[in-house]
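We store amino acids, tokens; thus:
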Amino acid sequence: MTKKIFSTTAIAVTLLVATTVSSYAQCGGASWYGPGFNGKKAASGQIFNENAMTAAHRSLPFGTKLKVVDQRTGKFVQVTINDRGPFHGNRIIDLSKAAATKLGFRNRGTTSVCLEKL
């Protein structure tokens, strides 16, 4: 009988942990932008700074903080959504030049990422 109670408790704890993990996840292509946009107004009204840890997403609210994980390398960065986009291909996010540099894909131009809402 004790063994059954322990099993039920373990299952309940596992379910509790699973429901506290981020409720938003998305994987897909990422690109970066900066030149030509630096110093101009982003969709949020903020001035875009290619050296800040920011990103553009089609639908997430401005100010949303994301963990962006490069699927090729496992490297990750934290960015804040302050613009709209990308509007090219199957990409799900446009990262600032600084974020792309930190992830290590700036010279390639694109990579595969997964996003997790913080």
Notes: Strands lie at 25-33, 54-56, 65-70, 76-83, 91-96, 110-117. Residues 31 and 109 are 6 Å apart (CA to CA). Residues 1-20 have pLDDT under 50 and may be disordered. The chain has one domain: 23-117.
